[in-house]
Amino acid sequence: MTLRFISFVGAIFVAVIAVIVCFTSIIFKLPPKMEGTSSLKFKPLSLKFRELIESGYERGAGLVVFENGKNVFDIVGGYADIRFEVPWSPNTITPIFGSSVLPVAFIFGLLKDRNLINESVAVRSYSEKFPSKYLTVAELLTHMTGYAYPTDQLSFFDIRDEPDNVVKALFKKHPTFPSGTPSFHFHTLDLIAGDIVSNVDIKNRPLARFFLEEIVWPRATPELSS
What we know:
Elements lengths: L1 H26 L6 E5 L4 H13 L4 E8 L2 E12 L4 E2 L13 H13 L23 H5 L14 H6 L1 H10 L16 H12 L6 H10 L5 H4 L1
Antiparallel strand pairs: 1-3, 2-3, 3-4
Helix pairs in contact: 3-7, 3-8, 6-7
């Protein structure tokens, strides 16, 4: 009887706490904030952005769109720090993950247009260091090399300053997953892609330099150049 009473009291206590937490979150929910400018053409995007902020699905974000060199959408919304009610601003700094995926796709698209690379060809054809003779460039770009991340302890300075040695060390180890298995690249896509780019590029430029000189700078707006 005593155990049942304790269980009953415990259940009531948990229920009361849940109700308090629920009402507290409702009472102290911060009002949605959003500011910026948008062209009429991008009004649907503005409405979707507002929906994400007001629903609480997106706590804070900023989005800028350039079309033909013109800033057509520049809006921030939500909070950078909910605890201190700090709104998201154009100057809010945030970490970016997976930032090499899009640049690599743009670079390989450009290399294909210039007939410097074929996505159906084996990676080994462009990178002698790559262990597999059969894995294609297309499989690299769809994250199927199996080399999800370096197993050695590395710093970002190692990756930046000695990419060739890092790639060699990476390929001396067994893949994290069997080759051909879908698995995301953590800090390895840019290493493998960079080795390919420097080999097929007549100037042997590293990945970042190629991206800047061939894609970013030729299309740069004053905002990007500053």
